[in-house]
């Protein structure tokens, strides 16, 4: 239109009887129950939010400065689909130090960890394919294959005296020869469960035998508390050859406090990289060059930060578990990984309603277990990536609310 | 693994006989022929590159400064899936000024224009769906639906005395009632073709009648030279009601020199937005907050920049068309939009081989027409988003090379 004209409103033509809605596979994707709870608290003052999987700490200055410096230098052009060579090289060195020799031609940069999961799914699954996922689980791993027309069967973790555990035989039985892909997240969001080396070995051998792909979401690998200080959670990369059917997904979000940057990476067979490059082209084309430069700074200068962060998280976890254990009716165990406590309490058998009530009546923001699959019902998720004083305030609100509930019932 | 251990190499187990390769639908996606040409020139000194769809100018300082300021203020956290409210509001005002009243609940922020195309395709097409696209065309629009299992039929533009034209009746005939989606890009990459208002009206009415979705890629709408200064190319948004089956895709890349930022947007029916939010969650979750802040600066302070840029591009286009017209054997017409000249010359009937020879023997980087579909064969694409002196140097190389070819043949 001519810019000198006043804009006219479009003239609605009532001759389009068909309403606009997405296709059924998309409409039936789960909406976020966490967002539903957050919406229930919208506009309420003084809510203490522990519902999202995000630290309350801003990205460290040296990482932000690296992005600003790259911007000042004019890093505002397209990059290679698979990422700038210096970042791929730095990632290869980082991964090699943790998990054994990995060359840059096995590494690709992605526009977030979740984008890496989407790309990995696009690489291997299409309409009608069968995918298996271990739950409770961050919904994204279960929903992404459905966008591509795959169907997803779930194998539940088992909650017992030792916390969340894998029923290995049940998982192996579910990994039938007609299965295309196993999506597995360890350390796990929301439970904090960490797959053992022996479990990984058994699953890898089984999947090799049947040609089943493994997409391992290992974005919490550095947030691991069961070993010595600095120890990383067991990874499929420790066991798998680099050219077999294993795709490992990782992210800068958690270990470098970079949630909002949307920067992740994939370690995968070199034979996949040409096809992965095409998929990156058709999804986001590349990650911004200045964001990739920030990733290099994080890897090269961030090790002390990550170790300090993991130490703080371990202290926060222990503090929260200790505090919650003292609350009558709460059943809580210290999880070995990630940054959540996934625990049960009175009323959690309807966790969505419980969490809505908690935000409304106690100004406490928790995530309902049912957000992570039906297997998560009966639990709520508390992200402890914040300072202990805020955790204390949250526990006080929970305890007071539970006492009011008890008083009302008696 | 323990960080005190030396990393061991993974122990390859030869019992995985199945090689790792992507599924057939992904392997058969077209790789970029532009990249194939660029690779043929890899390591060669002094290549003049006109092959990519990118200006040689860095993003303006005020936009980069806005991102750096947001970083300094700590905008490093997740944002709403559909984008931060101030950017959605600013986009709504921008779109309203160009195309009539549009509220923020019809606008979503995406992680690039191509990401908007992927999201739009995910919203409406799945396995077995029929998609129609008008070609020659940037390959991404044709390949994206295939990732989702759809099949794509193409309708070719016709090249004649008036340049590239749409055969409207042929397009309407191809838009059969069983068609799910029309993907159309105007102003068009690579031809510079611009759909007329009357053609848009006819197509919209036809698609309304049959319930066919339209995804309109209008990322070049500001790069339009057929009207008065400041005039924007005809848009489906000028004709369509906001709640019918029309999804308009746009980007900050071209009109604000922000290719490397990966920031785009969608205008779509409000009834789609909940489902679109889910898809954003499962693709990239959000665009970085500091990148979104830069988008606000671009919209609020960038109008003079865009107009100056379009004036420069118009001058570059005219300059290049004039220069190329003087080269014997070249057939070139001034296109009404975008930032490419798509022209024929001796040898272009095998455009991939021609472009490889040009980069190797003339140090001239052009994109082969066949990169944009078989209908583009016989042509090459020249991006003129650079200063005239560089264009002159390129034309000199082309002319000298053609003369050498002619001398060799005679």
Please give a structural write-up.
With 410 residues, the first copy, chain A, is α/β, with parallel strands linked by helices. Chain A folds into 2 domains: 24-59 and 304-401, Aspartate Aminotransferase, domain 1; 61-301, Aspartate Aminotransferase, domain 2 (3-Layer(aba) Sandwich), CATH 3.40.640. Helices cover 40% and strands 14% of the residues of chain A. The first copy, chain A, contains 13 helices and 14 strands. Chain A has helices spanning 24-27, 33-40, 61-72, 85-99, 113-124, 139-147, 168-174, 197-210, 273-283, 289-301, 303-325, 351-362, 388-409, and strands at residues 48-49, 107-110, 130-135, 151-156, 158-160, 163-165, 179-185, 213-217, 246-251, 264-267, 340-343, 364-365, 367-368, 380-383. In chain A, α6 (139-147) links the parallel β3 (130-135) and β4 (151-156). The longest helix of chain A has 23 residues, at 303-325. Chain A is globular. In chain A, 57% of the residues are buried. Chains A and B meet through α1, α3, α4, α5 and α6 of A and α1, α3, α4, α5 and α6 of B.
Question: Could you write a compact summary of the structure shown?
Answer:
The structure is a homodimer of 410-residue chains. Chain A has 410 residues and is an alpha/beta fold. The first copy, chain A, contains 13 helices and 14 strands.
């Amino acid at each position: 239109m001519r810019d000198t004209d006043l804009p006219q409103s479009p003239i609605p033509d009532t001759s389009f009887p068909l309403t606009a809605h997405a296709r059924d596979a998309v409409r039936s994707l789960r909406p976020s129950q966490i967002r539903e709870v957050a919406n229930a608290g919208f506009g309420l003052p003084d809510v203490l939010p522990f519902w999202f999987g995000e630290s309350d700490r801003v990205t460290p200055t040296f990482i932000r400065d690296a992005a600003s410096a790259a911007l000042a230098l004019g890093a505002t052009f397209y990059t290679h689909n698979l990422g700038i060579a210096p970042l791929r090289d730095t990632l290869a060195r980082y991964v090699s130090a943790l998990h054994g020799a990995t060359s840059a031609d096995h590494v690709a940069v992605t526009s977030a960890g979740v984008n890496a999961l989407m790309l990995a799914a696009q690489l291997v699954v299409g309409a009608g394919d069968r995918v298996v996922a271990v739950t409770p689980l961050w919904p994204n791993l279960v929903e992404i294959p459905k966008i591509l027309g795959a169907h997803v069967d779930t194998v539940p973790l088992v909650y017992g005296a030792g916390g969340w555990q894998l029923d290995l035989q049940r998982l192996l039985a579910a990994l039938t020869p007609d299965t295309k892909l196993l999506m597995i997240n360890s350390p796990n969001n929301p439970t904090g469960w960490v797959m053992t080396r022996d479990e990984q070995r058994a699953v890898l051998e089984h999947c090799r035998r049947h040609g089943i792909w493994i997409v391992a979401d290992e974005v919490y690998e550095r947030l691991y508390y069961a070993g010595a200080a600095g120890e990383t959670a067991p990874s499929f990369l420790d066991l798998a050859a680099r050219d077999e059917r294993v795709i490992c997904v990782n992210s800068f979000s958690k270990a470098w406090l970079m949630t909002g940057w949307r920067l992740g990476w994939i370690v995968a067979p070199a034979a996949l990289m040409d096809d992965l490059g095409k998929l990156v082209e058709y999804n986001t084309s590349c990650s911004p060059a200045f964001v990739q430069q920030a990733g290099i700074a994080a890897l090269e200068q961030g090790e002390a930060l990550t170790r300090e962060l993991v130490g703080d998280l371990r202290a926060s976890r222990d503090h929260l578990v200790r505090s919650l254990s003292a609350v009558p009716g709460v059943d809580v165990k210290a999880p070995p990984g990630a940054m959540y406590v996934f625990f049960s309490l009175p009323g959690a058998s309807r966790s969505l309603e419980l969490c809505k009530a908690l935000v409304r009546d106690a100004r406490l923001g928790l995530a309902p277990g049912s957000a992570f699959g039906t297997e998560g019902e009966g639990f709520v998720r508390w992200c402890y990536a914040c300072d202990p004083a805020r955790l204390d305030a949250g526990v006080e609100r929970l305890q007071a609310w539970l006492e009011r509930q008890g008083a009302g019932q008696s």
